Amino acid sequence: MGKGLAYTLMIGVVAALVIGLVGGYIIGYYMKRGQEIDIRSVCPGYGILSKIKSRGALVVGTSADWPPYEYITPTGEFAGIDIEIAKRVAKYLNVSLQIKDMKFAALFEAVKRGDVDIAIADIAMKPERLQVVDFSIPYRCEEGKAIIIKKGFEYSGYESLYGKRIGVQLGTTEEDLAKQFFGGKSEIVAFDRVYPEMTLALKTGKIDAMITAPDVAKIIVSKEKDLQIVDYLPFFSCSVIVMPHCAYDLKVEVSKVIWSMLQSGELDKIKEQEIRKWMELAGAS
User: Fold this and answer.
1) How far apart are alpha carbons 270 and 148 in whole angstroms?
2) Which is more confidently placed, 229 or 19?
3) Residue 250: pLDDT band by 50, 70, 90 thresholds?
4) Which of 168, 181, 285, 156 is nearest to 233 (CA)?
5) Which domains, and CATH codes, for the chain?
6) In sequence order, what are the residues at sequence separation of 6 or more whose Cβ sits closer than 8 angstroms to the Cβ of residue 212?
7) Strand stretches in 50-117, DSSP E
8) Span 245-273, mean pLDDT?
9) Run of H or E including 25
10) Highest mean pLDDT range out of 12-16, 35-39, 40-44, 183-187?
11) Sheet holding 227-233, edge to edge
């Protein structure tokens, strides 16, 4: 596990403790003053772990349109890296798993209202989201977006791509970064899918480079031997599991699962297996 991720995890744990202390203080303050309050109106996640175990099921919200993290297979099953993580959380809690698919933007209110217990959908750890929901420790961090070229292309830095055609996936952070670094200097070509469409375009010379997530890039170049990663665009983001405020007991249990998977290397294996499975499905469609 890299120093950057370890540091971020440490910050996440400290933040969790601070938020827990603040939440406890607020509840204690009102109780001390003798005021009757509906605890769940202040802390919607209060007692949620007991509720999950009594129900016998963990209800997980996701937005299954973001392969390889979450998607629906041709046979109608939920699949992806995040889905595998959710399965392991449910197994650890000794309950079944129920998945609710919805638009990404709807996930946060769904968690807040209690429509789902947690949400997992490659959700970035953004401070403003803490106003609505709470976070687990991060399970994935990116420290850059990978630039892939075809072997034989002379690359000496970003300037090598000026005047060239650069492929990105439509509507992604990679597209935003490409415009930031190469807008007005190169032609940005957007594709619906990274694999196989954009990858094939690079292999056949229709584009000169492509930008994608590092986890995906590593699997692509291991499969396509004529391609290579030559550089990274600076970018930092961590993904977390989202849960309601004051779900302290659930937060601890979910974070235990994530920490165990990170320490054992299980999460890295899941990433590779799920990315390869997605590529096989994408190539067959």
Assistant:
1) 23
2) 229
3) very high
4) 181
5) 3-141+237-284 (3.40.190.10), 144-233 (3.40.190.10)
6) 145, 146, 148, 168, 169, 174, 194, 198, 220
7) 57-62, 65-66, 70-72, 78-79, 96-101
8) 96
9) helix 3-32
10) 183-187
11) 187-191, 165-169, 209-212, 145-150, 227-233
